Amino acid sequence: MGPFFECPIDMLKRxxxxxxxIDGTITxxxxxxxxxxxxxxxxxxxxxxxxxxxxxxxAGICESLITYMDGISYVISENxxxxxxxxxxxxxVDTNPLxxxxxxxxxxSVIKDRGFDVxxxxxxxxxxxxxxxxxxxxxxxxxxxxxxIAT
Length: 151
Hints:
The protein is α/β, with parallel strands linked by helices. It is 36% helix and 16% strand. A five-stranded mixed beta sheet has the order 1-2-3-4-5, covered by helices on one side.
C-alpha cells in the first residue's frame, strides 16, 4: 500500500478504524495533544470511526486519555503491553505485572547498592510493563550494566 494521501477515495470510504502513534505524530513540541486534534477525534467518533491511540507512554498516563478524551475507543500503552478500554485495562502480554514491579524494584536496589546515583524517569511509578532510565543523565557504563542486570 502507498501513502495515505494517494489512497483511492473508494478505498478510503471503507476505512472505519484509525490508529495513530501519539508522541511526535499528533503531539505538539511540548508533548501535548492540541485541541484541534481532540476536536477532529470527536467528529470522527461521532461519524462512527473507531479511534486507537498507540504509545510507549506509561499505563497511568494513558488511563486519562481513554477516560477524559471524547471519541477515543482504545489506547495501547507501554509499547504494546496494555490495552485500555472504557471498561478497564487488558494485558496484551502473558505475565504477572505485580511480579514485574517487584523485579524492577529489586533492579533499582541493585543499581543503588552499587553506588550509582540513578533515577528512573518521572513516570516510573505508573509503569507496569517496563522501566525507563533517563539516558541523558546516566553514564554509559551504568546503562550497560543495567542492561546486563535486566536481561
